[in-house]
C-alpha cells in the first residue's frame, strides 16, 4: 500500500468522525477481506457475519479515538476483528479453529516444492495442529492475509522483532517436523 | 499449549457469497441505535447525579435545622433525668 493510499484512507476516517456515512467507502473496500479473515478463524458463515458486523460497529464507535501510527487503517480493522474473534472464543472456551483453503495451502507448498501430494497436505495440517495458537496467528496473518511484520506486530500487539521471531520459530518447527522447504525470504 | 483445530476447506468464499452479508445501511442503523442508547444512558446518569446532589443538599439542610433545634430542647427544665431525681426525692420509702 502506497503512502498516498494510506493518507487518503486517513482523510476518509477524519471525515467520518463528523459524518459516519462517509465510512461506507472503507466498509465496502475492506468488508470481503475482514469477512475472510474472520471466516478463517471460525469456519461458520453466520457467526462470521455477526462478528464481522460487530467489528465494523466497533470501528464506527471508536473512530474518534483512531490515531495514525504508521500502519494502514486496515491494520486497525484487523486488530479489532481479531479482538472480536478472541472475545468469542474466550466466552465459549472452545478450541480455536483455523480454517484454511486448500488452494492457498497448495500455492504455498508449490512455492517451496514442486512435488506435493495429498499425503503432504495432510501431514502439514497435522504439524500445524501441534503449533501453539500464537504461532498459528502469526502464520495466518503472514501467509494467508499477506501482512508485513509491521502490521502483524500492530495487529497482535507485539514488537516487530517478536513477530519475526515467532514466524521463524514456527517455520523452523515445521521444517524440523518434515523436510519441507518453505521458501521464505523474510521480505517485508 | 492451547489446543487448536485446523480445518482444510476445499472452496474459498466467493465475493458473491460474502456480498449477501454486506449491508452498510443495516450497520448504520445499528450504529445510530447504539448512539441513541449511549446518549440516553448518559442522560440518565446525569439526572441521577443531579438527584443525588439535590438529596444530599436537602439532607444537609435538615441536619442543620435539627442541630439548631437541639440547644433549645436543652433549656427545657423538665427532662427524664430531673424527673427521676424528683420522684426518688418524693418517695416515702426513702
Describe this entry's structure for a reader.
The complex is a heterodimer of chains A (188) and B (94). Chain A has 188 residues and is mostly helical. Chain A has two domains: 3-92, RNA polymerase sigma factor, region 2, helix turn helix motif (Rna Polymerase Sigma Factor, Chain: A, Orthogonal Bundle), CATH 1.10.1740.10; 102-177, Orthogonal Bundle (Arc Repressor Mutant, subunit A). Chain A is 70% helix and 3% strand. The longest helix of chain A has 20 residues, at 73-92. Chain B has helices at 15-19, 24-74, 80-90, and one strand spanning 4-9. Chain B is mainly α and 94 residues long. Classes of the chains: A mainly alpha (188), B mainly alpha (94).
Corresponding CATH superfamily of the largest domain in chain A = RNA polymerase sigma factor, region 2, helix turn helix motif
Largest sheet of chain A: none
Mean pLDDT of chain A: 88
Spans of chain A with pLDDT under 50 lasting ≥5 residues? none
Shape of chain A: globular
Tell me the strand percentage band of chain A. under 5%
Looking at the structure, what is the overall shape of chain B? elongated
Quaternary status of these chains? Answer: heterodimer
Question: What's the gist of this structure?
Answer:
The complex is a heterodimer of chains A (188) and B (94). By secondary structure, chain A is mostly helical.
Element layout with pairings:
The complex is a heterodimer of chains A (188) and B (94).
Chain A (H helix, E strand, L loop, with lengths): L2 H16 L5 H16 L5 H18 L10 H20 L3 E6 H11 L5 H12 L3 H12 L4 H8 L3 H18 L11
Chain B lengths: L3 E6 L5 H5 L4 H51 L5 H11 L4
Amino acid at each position: 500500500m502506497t503512502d498516498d493510499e494510506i493518507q487518503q484512507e486517513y482523510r476518509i476516517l477524519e471525515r467520518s468522525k463528523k459524518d459516519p456515512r462517509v465510512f461506507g467507502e472503507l466498509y465496502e473496500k475492506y468488508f470481503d477481506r475482514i469477512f475472510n479473515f474472520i471466516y478463517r478463524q471460525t469456519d461458520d458463515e453466520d457467526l462470521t457475519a455477526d462478528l464481522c458486523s460487530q467489528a465494523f460497529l466497533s470501528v464506527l464507535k471508536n473512530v474518534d479515538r483512531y490515531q495514525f501510527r504508521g500502519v494502514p487503517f486496515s491494520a486497525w480493522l484487523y486488530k479489532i476483528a481479531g479482538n472480536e474473534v478472541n472475545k468469542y472464543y474466550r466466552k465459549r472456551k472452545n478450541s480455536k479453529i483455523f480454517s484454511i483453503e486448500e488452494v492457498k495451502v497448495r500455492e504455498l507448498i508449490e512455492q517451496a516444492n514442486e512435488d506435493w501430494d495429498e499425503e503432504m497436505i495432510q501431514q502439514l495440517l497435522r504439524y500445524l495442529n501441534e503449533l501453539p495458537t500464537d504461532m498459528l496467528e502469526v502464520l495466518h496473518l503472514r501467509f494467508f492475509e499477506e501482512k508485513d511484520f509491521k502490521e502483524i506486530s500492530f495487529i497482535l500487539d507485539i514488537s516487530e522483532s517478536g513477530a519475526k521471531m515467532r514466524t521463524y520459530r514456527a517455520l523452523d518447527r515445521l521444517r524440523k517436523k518434515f523436510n519441507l522447504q518453505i521458501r521464505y525470504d523474510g521480505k517485508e | 499449549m492451547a489446543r487448536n483445530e485446523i480445518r482444510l476447506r476445499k472452496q474459498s468464499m466467493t465475493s458473491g457469497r460474502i456480498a449477501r452479508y454486506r449491508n452498510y445501511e443495516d450497520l448504520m442503523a445499528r450504529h445510530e441505535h447504539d448512539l441513541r442508547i449511549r446518549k440516553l444512558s448518559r442522560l440518565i446518569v446525569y439526572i441521577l447525579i443531579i438527584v443525588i446532589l439535590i438529596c444530599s443538599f436537602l439532607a444537609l439542610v435538615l441536619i442543620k435545622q435539627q442541630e439548631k433545634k437541639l440547644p433549645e430542647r436543652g433549656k427545657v427544665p423538665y427532662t427524664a433525668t430531673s424527673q427521676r431525681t424528683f420522684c426518688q426525692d418524693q418517695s416515702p420509702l426513702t
